[in-house]
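LAB NOTEBOOK - FOLDING QUEUE
OPERATOR: T.R.
BATCH SIZE: 2
PURPOSE: Compare the predicted structure-token outputs for two unrelated chains run back to back under identical settings.
PRIORITY: normal
REVIEWER: second-year student, initials M.K.

ITEM 1
FIELD SEQUENCE / FIELD STRUCTURE:
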Amino acid sequence: MNQAIKTDDEKLAPLREDGVVQYINKKYEPDPEFQSPIVAGKEDPWTSWALENDNGFKMDIETAKKQGLPKSLELYNDPGYLIYGLGVYHQLHCLNRLRKSFYPDVFYPNMSTEQVEIHKNHCFHAIRQALLCHGDISLIYWWDPSFTYIDDDGTERYTEDYLQKTPRERQVGLHASWSSEVQCRDLDAINTWVKERMVDPDKYGGRDGD
């Protein structure tokens, strides 16, 4: 019989200890802000989000030991405190790096091709591991909302266009949809907890949102 191994995420990790891990019901929906074209000189919402939320946080040494957290470096400008981060921020950082690598002239005008490429394989692998680990079981489906309409009696009916198509014609060229109801961890609560303990970036040379 296989016995599950407890990971750091399942131990009394800081966020669980403080009751921060909560769940909210959401729906996957397109967000135009994060799908908008890249425009030089225009504020980039991905980078703005990272600068606002992607923070390292500090934990005093005794508390870290008591909670059995992995070893980490002591902050040289905050003696007695260790620095930690969260996997979700690392994964979003990697996704953003991959996205930016498609627009090197906008985001990395002073970097060589080698410098831009160096992060890619690491980030692909980090995101792959996260996706496989969390195993999202929300449903993907193939349907066009224009296939149906609501009549005057409030009954859903198929459109003439749908009825005149063959089964093959209904399927060809149809894109997958992922607008499913899902249960997500409340990231606002997580962000708030981290910000209350965040490492002051001005003490360590600032940050650039990458």
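ITEM 2
FIELD SEQUENCE / FIELD STRUCTURE:
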Amino acid sequence: MFAPIISALRLSPIQVMAERTRQAIQQGHSVIDMTLGEPDFPTPQHIGEAAIRAIRDGETRYTPINGSTRLREAIVAKFRRDNGIDCSIAEISVGCGGKQVIYQAFLATLNPGDEVIMPAPYWASYSDIVAMNGGVLRPIMTSPQRGYALSAADLAAAIGPRTKWLVLNSPSNPSGTAYDRAQLAEFAQVIRQSPHRDFFILVDDIYEHILYDGRAFHTLAQVAPDLADRILTVNGVSKAYAMTGWRLGYACGPRHLIEAMTKLQMQINSHTSSISQAAAVAALEGPQDEVRRRCQAFQRRRDFLHDALSGIAGLHTPRPEGAFYLFPDVRACLGRQAPGGERIADDVALAAYLLRAGVAVVPGSGFGMPGFLRLSYATSDENLRIAAERMAYALGNLT
């Protein structure tokens, strides 16, 4: 009755744990939710006011498929101002979140058996979007000892004759790993020297503005403009501006790719909400001081939770450089027994055990790294304190 992809497609591990968390809370359990990658701050006031004005001014009709001219001009200006990328509005794609932009890019380009390479751990949705479009995911394994960073040598070894896309996400979900200019320059040199040249590079910069310790943000098209005709730079307003529900992502890339993606979007959802587009203009063109203030808050939370988890036996937690996640190695906790006698066989079982202890996290197997956990610290300082205490107690009771 259904297409084969339905039986093959897994449920999002993030959404599965988020739903279990909601159910536990509805049943009266006290749970600190660290599952969703969603800022706990409200959308800045000036952005909401821009949306209200758009409604009052009647900006409620269809826009061009790729977004209003006004929004695409704001995106072009943002890429030039923040990233040193020169592009035109014809090279801009706007969709209902970055996920739609990525989906359309893969749908437009992947043939059955084409390979998509990316460092693991990776955002869970990448693998499913690849599979939905007939591609084959080829993860490039990284290690916590190297801070989950991809090396140029490993990248060179991973590129092959069937490679159609390389995906780079920096700062990374779920690891928080961020690449500096020198590292990106090394990747660019690998790409230039590879005998396999018929592939695109998807650069996911959605966490661009959540970067710590005074690091400067860099992106591949900025570092290697000679590769721009192969790079799709994806971004959005969800994370930096706390606009997850507004559903607006965007990208710049080679015109022929953008045109193919637009042709698909024409038959998928036409365009994202005109009101969200007006709000996104205000986000990109308006004051950025609130974005910087919130980044400081996330850094403070990172420092607290990282220090707290570092004191728990059995966890090895690299210090993230951006985004708002910790990705501890919990393999030392596996194979042990919970107080009730249950054996903690894997990271899924450990996440279930921690949920019963009042802390909701996501198993690392959903991100291509079994034996790890993802914790979102986009929650209050008090919640983080309680979560750390509960985790220390629960993990300390494993035998």
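REVIEWER COMMENT (ITEM 2): The mean pLDDT is 96.
FOLLOW-UP: none requested
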